[in-house]
Amino acid sequence: MKLALRFCLGALALALAAVLPQAAQAERLKDLVSFQGVRDNQLIGYGLVVGLDGTGDQTSQTPFTTQSLTNMLGNLGITLNAATTQNMQLKNVAAVMVTAVLPPFARPGEAIDVTVSSLGNAKSLRGGTLLMAPLKGADGQVYAMAQGNVVIGGAGASANGSKVQVNSLGAGRISGGALVERAVPSAFTQPGGTMQMELRDMDFDNAQKIVAAVNNQFGMGTAVALDGRTIQLRAPTDPTSQVSFMAQLENIDVRPSQAAAKVILNARTGSIVMNQMVTLQNCAVAHGNLSVVINTQTAVSQPGPFSNGQTVAARQSNIQLKQDTGALKTVAASATLADVVKALNALGATPADLISILQSMKAAGALRADLEII
What angle do CA 113, 115, 117 make, to 5 degrees? Predict the structure, then answer.
């Protein structure tokens, strides 16, 4: 009897686990929030890549390449007259834009990666060397200097008008190609010994859960939620203690709440992504495809021999319009993501058609989710 009872309870537990939605897994606080004031900074600069194998800019179409080279040679003590500058044919030089990301707490002398992208009409940057290029921030100050050999991930060849290319040859990277010259002050502690955390996704429930978890470990009043994204912390005033405090904060486990039901539609690629909270209500869908086919042919009329006539070419177009009949199909209410996918697949529509169908379902109130088109 006891064995039968245990078997029944075990079967009931398995059935409930299959029916009820699974609880969210606990995540570290560092995966959910970021500290205000601790951020990356974008850098940008302009430079020249030299040493190319005849794949550089065509100077007649990119005059800024010639001007940049003239200015650089002038700084090195080489003076060129106007006639020489106009007759330059620089096939081994390319003007490029240099971009990089300055991480937080970066100090002078630290190496960061840079991306080099062609600005003119260079065919390839393979084998080129970036000359010293200053990288500036949004305030116009120079924060790093970039220089080094450009690594290109693509390959290509051309001959007699034929061309084969794999990946892009106009952009590459230099690993550790820039040295930091100026540090960006990171003031993550506000006056009064307070700091703020920001949730990566706004959610009032998650903000409250984070506050409860922090106060449970450090004591009541340590964390206060200012809104659904910002949490204010009472931090130590000593800098060494602040680092230890932030390290302990990042390792706190929080079980986030379920995300809002959302469907992402990519109109350019036709891809559709939805999370597990999406549900459907009973509805009926009819969708038909409309296609227009235009077939154009050229008819050539040849004159008879010795008739002094001329050959006449006439273009004839045949236009066909075809519309598939869309049968009205019932879509049953679906409570789980698997049921939603099964119901949509039953319509037999393409991803491009599903975008229109989902938009219509949302307008009719049958789709319980937010639509976001990217």
Answer: 165
CA–CA distance, 194 with 188 (Å, rounded to integer): 9
Q: How many CA atoms lie within 13 A of 322 on its CB side?
A: 5
The closest of 48, 323, 358, 32 to 202, measured between CA atoms, is: 32
Give the count of beta carbons closer than 10 Å to the beta carbon of residue 141: 11
Structure tokens at 162: 């034929």
Handedness of CA 230, 236, 241, 245 (dihedral sign): negative
Structural domains of the chain, with CATH: 27-36+188-254 (3.90.1150.10), 41-157+164-180 (no CATH), 262-296+315-373 (no CATH)
For the record, the structure tokens of 289 come out as: 């495809």
Residue 301: is it exposed, middle or buried by C-beta count within 10 angstroms (0-12/13-18/19+)?
exposed
The answer to whether residues 348 and 325 touch, using CB atoms and an 8 Å cutoff, is: no
Residue 282 and residue 348: Cα distance in Å, rounded? 18
**Both tokens of residue 178?**
């820039």
Pure H helices in 180-238:
204-218
The values of phi and psi at residue 297, to 5°, are -125, 150
**Predicted model pTM:** 0.69
Residue 243: both structure tokens together: 């680092």
Q: Can you say how many angstroms the Cα of residue 194 is from the centroid of all Cα atoms in its chain?
A: 33
Q: Residue 48 and residue 77: Cα distance in Å, rounded?
A: 18
Q: Which of 31, 33, 198, 177 is nearest to 101 (CA)?
A: 177
CA separation for the pair 59, 144 (Å, rounded): 28
The full DSSP string for 233-271 is EE--SSHHHHHHHHHHHHT-EE-PPPPPPEEEE-TTT--
Rounded Cα distance, 228 and 233, in Å:
15
The whole-number mean pLDDT for each consecutive block of 10 residues of the chain, a chain of 374 residues, reads 38 38 72 89 95 86 83 84 71 93 93 94 91 94 96 71 71 94 81 85 92 93 92 86 88 89 85 87 73 62 70 67 62 75 77 82 87 87
Q: For residue 38, what are the CA distances in angstroms to 30, 186, 205?
A: 12, 6, 24
